Amino acid sequence: MTRFLAITHTEMLILRRNRWLLVATLIMVLFALALTFAGSAPTGTLGVDMLTVSVASMTTLSVYLAPLLALMIAFDAIAGDVDRGSLSLLLSYPAGRGEILLGKFTAHLAALAFAMTVGFGTAGAVAAWFGGAGPESLMALVRLILTSILLGAVFLALGYLLSALARGATAAAGLSAGLWLVFVVLYDLGLLGAVVMDKGGTFTQSVFPWVMVANPADAFRLWNIAATEGVAMASGMTGAAQALPVWAAPASLMIWPVLGFVLARAAFLRVEP
Amino acid sequence: MTDKALSIDHVCKDRGKTRVLDTINLSLAPGQRVALLGHNGAGKSTLIKSILGLTPIHGGAIRIGNATPGSNQARRETAYLPEAVSFHSALTGREQLTLFAQLSGAKADVPGLLDRVGLSDALDRRIGTYSKGMRQRLGLAQVLLGQPKVALLDEPTSGLDPISRQDLYAIIDELAAQGTAVLIASHALTEVEARTDRIAIMRKGRMVADDTLNNLSALAGLPIRLKVRASANPDVLAAELDGSRINGAAVELLCSPEDKMEALRRIAGMGDAVADVEMTPPKLEDLYRHYAQEEMQ
Lengths: 273, 297
Hints:
heterodimer; A: mainly alpha; 14 helices; 85% helix; globular; B: 297 residues; alpha/beta; Alpha-Beta Plaits; four-stranded antiparallel sheet; 11 helices; 27% strand; AAA+_ATPase (chain B); nucleotide-binding (chain B); Putative ABC transporter ATP-binding protein YxlF (chain B); transport (chain B)
């Protein structure tokens, strides 16, 4: 039972040693701060505090950054060990493949959580200091951090899946870049195209919101936006959120990490080092 | 069944249409050291991976003690040193070995083990700074974790300097002395010759020999080589002994083990005409060539 913790401990050492943790945290802090200051203009016109606006901007940021950072650690998790030739040795020890994957996942998620909390926390604190904050906007910040960690978890698991399927770490990196592009950019573009073609027909009315929420990145966005009126106003995205039941986005974002992990484990079981 | 540390019984494995392991039989008693020889691609590494349960077999059975490959018990009782082992370069030797100790569940004296393989100075240095030989030693240190029933060493001497090789075989002897059965896949024939109890030779997925060196020599009927140096005229000597001249002053003749004494007596009877005699029994290299390249029958 403690075996996966041994793996976790080792993976944390590696993330600290190779500066991944430092770089990821720095990226989060810098982007979050930049967006907070750049996006602080509409505060007066919307009549909400600066933290609310900051959370709305950071939600958009996190849709891009959380999957990217997660995939950046995850792609190497299995393929890298295969390339180094150390996986066969690791698997000759009495630790199940599920345990190994869980150990890595725990360490990687902890590192992501640290980077998210420090990054968004710092920007949130700055926004609150300069532009004020209320209980509602503080809740929105906490929700942003927690959902970002969930979104990271989704893409860690999907990254392991690709890492187990790919032949070599280089191929895994390429596949990960493709996955990111599809989920974060192309999926929305495709939906946008479909909505435009449909001209407000049945697809737009009933199918579109469900297809949208099936994508974890969009579910993340919807959850954050639907939950806070101020954030929804600041981001100008209320329509899709209102068309769905409240549980849809949280359910999507919570099912995906589990689903991804199960798939990754199944793919890892088939890897012959 | 239970008195064997490792038993491999009629094991077959197919990869696509080719049969990579063909009815392999091999068993190791506790404390036995067996060399596994064969060309690249003969199936040595595949066999080792099958024993570890890392790759499925399609016929026959493998037992480590009483456990099946890949089971938790089997993995606890097996130690493995992969060919050209490598580790994450960001970790130190101590951290890497501590991880393995925790995974194996064995109480381990990590600094002591690293000292045993001569890495005590590099304990807290990153593996990225290690030489190939040092990584190999670190790999060897993890073989010593716990008290494995079976140790599988895939090309353990690759990248080691001569002194380290001596150390390696000393460690293998220690393992054997504590009752571990050691299977060594190797290309370094001359080392293996002196340091193992039995030789197994694989060719194209089949086990073509599995016996002690002496028995294998007798079985193969390889000739003993006698080199006789003449003091005066080598041509006369060659004619008399029915041998062939190999350089200005020497004659070579081949004889079977049974005829060896007879030949020596003849040479001794020639008196002053013979300046020196050198006798070379068949080496493992000759045997290996005999078994590993013998035409398929």
